[in-house]
Amino acid sequence: xxxxxxxAREAVAAPQTxxxxxxxxxxxxxxxxxxxxxxxxxxxxxxxxxxxxxLVRVVGKPKRTLEARLAAYDPDRHGGQFAGDGLVGIExx
Length: 93
Description:
Layout: E1 19-21, E2 24-26, H1 31-37, E3 45-50, E4 53-58, H2 66-71
Antiparallel strand pairs: 1-2, 3-4
């Protein structure tokens, strides 16, 4: 049987204050907490009420915007499939 090895996460804590945000309440997540939790802007989460308070759980990966996808495009790596150099074929008038 194989064994499972779990890496212990370094405990990261930061005092926060809940503030009014529109019709609800909000809290900022510090950069240190975000790095430790491997989250970024746009990361989908689920918030649950538990005995100790609130639990925030990551439920997916952030969706990249079109701008982020285009910025990551590398014609050498992606085979030059981007048609960004003018009209070709029957598109010409």
